[in-house]
Amino acid sequence: MERGRYIAFEGAEGCGKSTHAARLAAELGAVLTRETGGTAIGARIRAILHDTDVTDLTDRAEALLTAADRAQHLDEVVRPALAAGRHVVSDRSVHSTLAYQGHGRGLDVDDLRRINAWAIADTWPELVLFLDVDPAVQTARMRHRELDRFERESEAFHVRVRDGFATMAAADPAHWVTVDANGTLDDVSTAVRRAVHDRLGI
């Protein structure tokens, strides 16, 4: 039995990750999941992380909570599916911690990488699709949403996060593909599908 392929969508708030992850998973017949909150335990962790009433969570505690969610997620969902020959499409992955808690919050990215490599037992996504969206488009998409704790962060924070994703994509072109997410839903889906086929042959 061939092992499944692990694909993650990354990007700033409002880039369309959830929509395109669901579309791709349906086309591939893949397991669709997300971080944070891809397990029952993870959903409880996510509730803390995204709760706008949580105002005193320290940056290190936030990073450790995301790592705990990820450890449970990889053990419970991702690795069993891959071992069973199922493809996995995840709305966010370990790279979000490097972007949000590293580039966004200013924690040491190398420390975060070591902590999370241990949490995921070095099971990194085989392909990362970075949906890059212009700030003006992002703002327009977010305008009519009820914003969670991360979405309410400052514009400067979101710029740092986006720059963090772009930096990771540029540094690792063998595993990352940057997709222009400013276009129509169908245009972005076509670009995503092309990238997955070209890189993974599926």
UniProtKB/TrEMBL annotation:
Reactions performed catalytically = dTMP + ATP = dTDP + ADP
PANTHER family for this protein: THYMIDYLATE KINASE, UMP-CMP KINASE 2, MITOCHONDRIAL
CDD domains according to UniProt: TMPK
Could you give a single Gene Ontology term from the biological process aspect? dTTP biosynthetic process
PROSITE patterns xref list: THYMIDYLATE_KINASE
Any one GO cellular component localisation term in the record: cytosol
The keyword Iron belongs to this UniProt entry's keyword annotation = no
The enzyme's E.C. designation: 2.7.4.9
**Family annotation (Pfam families):** Thymidylate_kin
One GO MF term: dTMP kinase activity
Taxonomic lineage from the root: unclassified sequences, metagenomes, ecological metagenomes
**Does the entry feature the keyword Transferase, yes or no?**
yes
NCBIfam families named among the record's database cross-references: DTMP_kinase
Keywords, ordered alphabetically: ATP-binding, Kinase, Nucleotide biosynthesis, Nucleotide-binding, Transferase
Q: Which part of the chain is the Thymidylate kinase-like domain?
A: 9-190
Q: Which family does it belong to?
A: Belongs to the thymidylate kinase family.
The molecule here is called dTMP kinase
